[in-house]
From TrEMBL:
Lineage: Eukaryota, Metazoa, Chordata, Craniata, Vertebrata
Protein name: Integrator complex subunit 1
PANTHER family: INTEGRATOR COMPLEX SUBUNIT 1
Residue segments, region Disordered: 47-73
Start and end residues of each Integrator complex subunit 1 RPB2-binding domain: 100-156, 169-269
Gene from which this protein is expressed: INTS1_6
Highest taxon listed in the record's lineage: Eukaryota
């Protein structure tokens, strides 16, 4: 216990032996009592590059002026160097039996220092260094994070006698090291660490040098514990929707998406699910939020992983006892549709316009987008087949809402029928299956918030994708975005599952409707046929069996047949 006490006293004092290289092994042994994970030198070097270049955030700030001696002292404290085998043999935990006593003593000393009423200019840099080395304690992390923003942005902290203002030791550098230590040791995901993450999300930083370092620390936070990623994304989104919105939210979210391209979109989708379970209608706000996220993160999100996350069945009580289950399913469908359209980048749009003109530019980008849409549509049909029926029993018009060509409807634009504006089912009715397959009326996609904008809705196109087949008059205007999302290949799994849904008595898609839809999708995909794209590949004979079974005549169940 005595070595730990004198360590604390020297750390807060002149640091005569704590920072001495001759005492390094002795100090390292004392620090095993704190269970603090120190950042390796490679992480600090990344921070130095960020401090020099400043490639994130807005605004700029000069690097805090530090003397060579102070830089070396900080590195001695914070940087973990590779120990020789002899040194590793000398390093061992020596305070396991006194762990509680040491922790209590450290916390009492730190609380006493932090609770003193003193101006920020008088805060000791050595106090921040001690906090950095004791961040293995969850209470220390919680104490430190509450003052980090003030220390990080302090312009003239720690001015000492004998230093000119330009060379004055500042709190910014040790505060940056403390921030890194807090993030790297946030590894329990207990209530204290969740509070720490909540405080970290609220920190507002403007200078590039600080913002760069903050994002580097966020990456370490996300790696410290497997549950930190989901908690961070949830808190960022809730903060974005609050009245005290942090302008750094989108950069934190961008960092999270870069950190884990598979898991981060899944956690983001779970937050959108949570929003849509609220009693209040959050669809309009969710659409606007998703568009802003995609815009600010420069489309660098795994759209397929995000959409698949939206489709995952949740077993939490708030989902099992949900009051508006039908509305939840309909709104998830709307988010799925807008997600597919948000995948249209400027490059995809340019390639699509060039393709319409007969030019072959950026075809790789266009084909990648088309394959992405085909994969998401396969997943959504799976969701409608297996997950949706367990959530809510929807009426046939809500589940299907087919306004496409049928055997009893003339394929004409100037006569009342399924393809004209005189659709027998109101445009405002909810729909699922045909909405995600982009066979709905265009108004259903932009009626909520007028997105896609009118500039993308003034191009001529065919809303059903059947080309010029039996066309009598020109088609009405249709969103260019909708054309890009509908003129895609169809996967065998998508086609097979639609046929299976038609064979099911439990789902509200009859055999004739399933055959019509399958026929329509195949014709639409055939219009995309090109040498560099495979629009449909069937390798299972079961699909042919399903087609033949759907063609079998089934007498209506609601009629009485004569005996015999």
């Amino acid at each position: 216990m005595a070595p730990a006490q004198v360590y604390i006293e020297d750390s807060l004092g002149e640091r005569i032996w704590v920072d001495s290289p001759h005492c390094k092994t002795f100090v390292d042994n004392i620090q095993t009592a704190f269970n603090t994970r120190m950042p390796p030198r490679s992480v600090l070097l990344q921070g130095e590059v960020g401090r020099g270049t400043g490639d994130l955030g807005a605004g700029s700030s000069p690097h805090p002026s530090l003397t060579e001696e102070e830089d070396s002292q900080t590195e001695l404290l914070i940087a973990e160097e590779k120990l020789s085998p002899e040194q590793e043999g000398q390093l061992m935990p020596r305070y396991e039996e006194l762990a509680e006593s040491v922790e209590e003593y450290v916390l009492d000393m730190l609380r006493d220092q932090l609770n003193r009423r003193q101006p920020i200019d008088n805060v000791s840099r050595n106090l921040l260094r001690l906090l950095t080395s004791t961040c293995g304690y969850k209470e220390v992390r919680l104490l430190a994070v509450q003052k980090l923003e003030m220390w990080l942005q302090n312009p003239k902290g720690g001015l000492c006698v004998g230093h000119t203002p330009s060379l004055a030791p500042q709190l910014t550098r040790p505060a940056q090291d403390l921030l890194m230590s807090v993030c790297m040791n946030c590894n329990t995901h207990g209530s204290e660490d969740m509070d720490v993450i909540s405080h970290l999300i609220k920190i507002r930083l403007k200078p590039k040098v600080l913002l760069n370092h903050f994002m580097l620390c966020i990456r370490e936070l996300l790696s410290a514990h497997k549950d930190n990623l989901g908690t961070t994304i949830k808190l960022v989104i809730f903060n974005e929707l609050s009245s005290a919105r942090n302008p750094n939210n989108m950069q934190v979210l961008y960092t999270a998406l870069q950190h884990s391209s598979e898991l981060a979109p899944k956690f983001l989708a779970m937050v959108f699910q949570d929003l849509l379970t609220n009693k209040d209608d959050y669809l309009r706000a969710s659409r606007a939020l998703l568009r802003e996220i995609i815009k600010q993160t420069k489309h660098e999100i795994n759209f397929q992983a995000f959409c698949l996350g939206l489709m995952q069945e949740r077993k939490e009580p708030q989902y099992l006892d949900m009051e508006f289950k039908e509305r939840f399913v309909v709104h998830i469908t709307d988010i799925l549709a807008i997600s597919m359209m948000l995948g249209i980048t400027a490059q995809v749009k340019e390639a699509g316009i060039a393709w319409d003109k007969g030019e072959k530019r950026n075809l790789e980008v266009l084909r990648s987008f088309q394959n992405q849409i085909a994969a998401i549509q396969r997943d959504t049909v799976w969701w409608l087949h297996t997950v949706v029926p367990s959530i809510s029993k929807l009426a046939p018009k809500d589940y299907v809402h087919w306004c496409g060509p049928g055997p009893h409807s003339p394929l004409s634009w100037d006569q009342p029928g399924p393809l004209t504006g005189a659709c027998p089912i109101p445009v405002d009715s909810s729909s699922l299956l045909h909405k995600v397959l982009f066979t709905e009326q265009p108004e259903t996609y932009y009626k909520w918030d007028n997105w896609p904008p009118e500039s993308d809705r003034n191009l001529m196109g065919d809303p059903t994708g059947v080309g010029s087949l039996h066309r009598v008059t020109p088609p009405p205007p249709r969103s260019f975005f909708l054309r890009l999302c509908s003129e895609v290949p169809i996967l065998e799994d998508t086609l097979m599952r639609i046929l299976v849904i038609g064979l099911s008595r439990e789902l509200p898609l009859g055999p004739a409707d399933a055959m019509e839809l399958a026929d329509h999708l195949v014709k639409r995909a055939a219009a995309v046929q090109a040498d560099d794209v495979e629009v449909l590949k069937v390798g299972r004979t079961q699909l042919i069996d399903a087609v033949l079974n759907l063609c079998t005549y089934h007498h209506p169940e609601n009629i009485q047949l004569p005996p015999g």
